[in-house]
Amino acid sequence: MPLPSYTSGTSTVPLLGDTIGGDFDRTVAAFGDREALVERATGRRWTYRELSAEVDRVAHGLLALGVVKGDRVGIWAPNCAEWTLTQYATAKIGAILVNINPAYRVHELRYVLNQAGVRTLVAAPGFKSSDYAGMIEQVRPECPALLDVVLIGRESWDALLGAEQVHDFPALSADDPINIQYTSGTTGFPKGATLSHHNILNNGFFVGELCGYSEEDRICIPVPFYHCFGMVMGNLAATSHGACMVIPAPGFDPAATLLAVSEEKCTALYGVPTMFIAMLAESTVDSLDFGALRTGIMAGSPCPVEVMKQVIDRLGMTEVSICYGMTETSPVSTQTRADDSVDRRVSTVGRVHPHLEVKVVDPDTGLTVPRGEPGEFCTRGYSVMLGYWDQPDKTAEAIDNARWMHTGDLAVMDESGYLNITGRIKDMVIRGGENVYPREIEEFLYTHPDVLDAQVIGVPDARYGEELMAWVRMREGATPLDADSMRAFCVGKLAHYKIPRYVHVVEEFPMTVTGKVRKVEMRAAAVELLGL
Fold this sequence. Notes:
single chain, about 525 residues, GMP Synthetase, Chain A, domain 3, nine-stranded mixed beta sheet
């Protein structure tokens, strides 16, 4: 009789019972003279001791504005040193940092400022084509809780840093809420996942433990700080181990990222699959020195097997790790280990994280399915959020009475406890009564020599209910695929009902800032394109 799809993460390393500020201060005491933060765009560098002094200046500046424990402080900026300073300063004084997506426009900004009740907003004046300062002034009259706006690099930021240090930092609990991160909001308004010191400090720490981090490591972080990938798996994994954080550019730039890895002798590199695809396509990739690079993380969306193999072979990331999780779980629930076989690392999302539980359940009954059978991935433990900010009804929909977080992702657990994410419950296509999982077809399309990237969606069909459509990005110089050439490639290798009926060749996919493909947007565009 097969085992149930349940496993728990044992560990000889205990959970940290500290606040983020307490853990940071311990690292400063141990590694004060080691380099802590590098910002490539400006050339600025800080040792841990220097970074600590700057964090404390920002913390005292916020206190001088009247910010108290529990107040919400928004941060709206691309990746920059000031983002990191604000992250640790708010943690020191117990203010709840509200991460605001750099891609937001007026409507979304207004919603988040009001939904979280942001009192103080730290923001870049602008980024790329976005005039942040102008948008803030536009919504400010409609945001009654917003008392102070501090613009990075402007007089208000200088005043913050120059404030007198007349306040003591408050006493804090590791269980206090410290961060609100808004989910992508692909259906309706985004929800604010509320996370504690205990949630994100421990998750960052154990991500770093499984990557084998020490004070010798230098982590290149091109993923956005506003997301857990950047601020938890990046910053908190680094500072809890005395490692160095390297910011290659304010926004993702594949050439700048590769140059940063090479010149800063980074030992770890982070990215979502689309970022690694872009880096591997750079003309400089095979001429730069990546001799120091040994590990890193690929996460954020399913990792194509072919891309993973190239990351190992061409970038030298022999210990690269796959992580799986969601914002609501701080974020990581499973991770591959350095001693896992290459096959495990290219075909699964690893095993359960230390101190967590995971199970796979039947979405209809909630009962745990036998190993080898697909179902919904659920997780429980220290990493599960406190709840959605001021939305107890939405919290109850996601976290059941036994404190299991229901992810909405489809997964299969094998006999050894390794998990494979097969797609989103909402992404599953039902064609003529057959359940079709887009991830399986996408993995197959990556084996086509001319395909750079592929995404598969369901579109309405009068006969079958839904039909399959493949959106593909072609390699440079390749002849674009059409439906006939796609069928010729698939026949005899995929079941007939899994072969896409439609093919759409594009330069780019619609994406979120964190590199997740917006399939909802793709479906809407496909319906219009096909006249359905």
